[in-house]
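Pasting as-is:
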Amino acid sequence: MNNKGVDKSKRQFLTTALTVVGAVGTGYLAVPFLAQMQPSVKAMAAGAPVEVDISKMEPGQLLRVAWRGKPVWILNRTPNVLATLKTLDSELRDPLSEESEQPPSSKNPVRSIKPEIFVAVGLCTHLGCSPTFRPEIAPNDLGDKWKGGFFCPCHGSWFDLAGRVYRGVPAPTNLVIPPYRYITDTQIIIGEETEENAA
């Protein structure tokens, strides 16, 4: 083969130009393909932390919010509720929450960072039904032992106002406490732990 009349610089230029065009074309094809593999904005928002203002909560009030597609309860407990919690240990399956899911900041008898504000995932640990908030004492349908709490209508599990499960009911563990932290005295972020526990 005779290569005497071939301009090698033109060949090199064409090879380089085709390589660049091919790389750019591959990039244009790859970007949409890779972008569709990323979670959607809706999916990212569903797992994002939720900021909650509790400044207007009255004593005894339960506030419901959604986090990661689950109901989360925020309860402003009264001094009477906190006093009653101390009397229930003998009725409970796991009064010290040794077998329960909760961040270290809530590993205490009242299962919260601040005693008066209780935060929990509002799903029964048996089969995931959402219990009802029953703050009244000894109602006719629940009897004299009921000191206020959360009652699961699906299978009859009882939880006190710290989300601790009673003995002899289907739910195996206490209600889940999600990670949360205070950013001010009246603002909570659900989905993030306190800074000392996140380290």
